Amino acid sequence: MQQARCLVRSSVNIDETFQVPHIVRPGETISSSKMWSRPGGKGANVAAALGSAGTEVVMLGAVGEDATWPLDHLKERGVIVDDVHRSKDVPTGRAFIQISSQDGENSIVLLKGANFTPVPHLDDPTKWLDAKTTHLMLQNEIPLETTIAYVKHARTLKHENAQSRVCTVFNPSPMPTTEELRSFPWKGIDVLIVNQGEASDLLSALQGEQNESVIKSLAALEPFKEVGWLVMTRGGDGFLAGVMLDGERVWLDMPAAKPENVVNTTGAGDTFAGYLVAGLMHSHNKSEKPTKETIKQVLSTAGVAASMAVEIDGAMESIPDMQAVKERQAALST
Q1: What pLDDT score does 326 carry?
Q2: What three-state secondary structure class fits 36?
Q3: What is the number of helices (H) and of strands (E) in the chain?
Q4: Is 66 a catalytic residue?
Q5: 122, 132, 134, 257 - which has most CB atoms within 10 Å?
Q6: What is the share, in percent, of the chain residues with pLDDT greater than 70?
């Protein structure tokens, strides 16, 4: 059996973080008590989580020559970064983050930077997606047309010595426009990961109305009937997942793992996504046929990892390694 390998075609940023008494309101000026710079970007964070979980992961993106040090942090976690493009003319992307000292919640403004620089050899998926790739992770911090090109090409590939095609995972964050959502090739997605707000925006764009069962309503729409995993995170309320199992969608309503304390929620969603994909990759390596119990285990592990990520400052630095996650799971089960 071919060992699982994930290609992350996404973003690398520097997170410029400001500790504030509360998230700034329109027209308001407030003082920050603390400021720091750390590696980030949704793609880099997920790649770091995948590396921390012990999987083989390749990061494909772009940074500016003004700041390549985030790549060193990825390498320390086992991520392959050899083919990340270094731009001479465009700076590394930035995320300007407010962290509320009241409750740890965050607000983020993005500077696209090198993430949106046209790089022809990176934007052509035929050069990077091949039969050795078992999983593909995509988000929305690079040009959407590049993401779509990778989705469409992945649909045509099968891994070596296997009958199944590449497992394409998509977290549409930041959320595309309504028109972009309507034209997106959803049938090329195998795993969709959204938070509650993103799920509501997606349903509103495609159906034009809202109701309480957002993710279940998405599952009923034609574009999502073939999406194997529909996962909606709900912060402290846990997550709801609808997974295709033996031709039927099984719904799992999972509680959130309680963190020991909440310091910074910035990297929790990316940690969850990374560990979920890592769980799928570990199952692939074991040649496991999915069951309700193995699916619950994948989701539970991702949830515990995400809960641990909110206990430490920094999006990437807060991501726990697999051994720490297993130890926390063992402690929670006693």
Answers
A1: 96
A2: strand
A3: 10, 14
A4: no
A5: 134
A6: 96
User: How many other C-beta atoms are found inside a 10 Å radius of the C-beta of residue 258?
Assistant: 11
Separation CA 176–CA 138 (nearest Å): 13
CA–CA separation, 272 and 194 (whole Å): 11
Catalytic residue (choose from 190, 270, 313, 321): 270
Query: Burial level of 241, CB count in 10 A (0-12/13-18/19+)?
Result: buried
d(CA 124, CA 121): 6
Ranges of the chain with pLDDT below 50: none
Strand 34-40 relative to strand 13-20, pairing: antiparallel
pLDDT for residue 214 = 87
Q: What token pair was written down for 220?
A: 């009923």
Within 10 angstroms of residue 226's Cβ, the number of other Cβ atoms is: 12
Residue 280's SS3 state is helix
pLDDT of res. 9: 98
Please state the residue numbers annotated as binding site for ATP. Answer: 195, 233-238, 269-270
Known binding-site residues for substrate equal 13-15, 41-45, 141, 270
**Three-state SS at 67:** coil
Q: Which residues, listed in sequence order, are joined to residue 145 by a DSSP beta bridge? A: none
Cβ(214)–Cβ(196) below 8 Å: yes
**121, two tokens:** 């050899």
Q: CA-CA distance, 134 to 73, in Å (whole number)?
A: 24
| Residue (of 285, 297, 296, 294) closest to 326 by Cα position | 297
User: Alpha helix (H) ranges present in 242-316?
Assistant: 268-285, 292-309
The binding site consists of 13-15, 41-45, 141, 195, 233-238, 264, 266, 269-270, 309, 312, 314, 318
Identity (one letter) of the amino acid at 144?
A: L
DSSP 3-state assignment of 164? coil
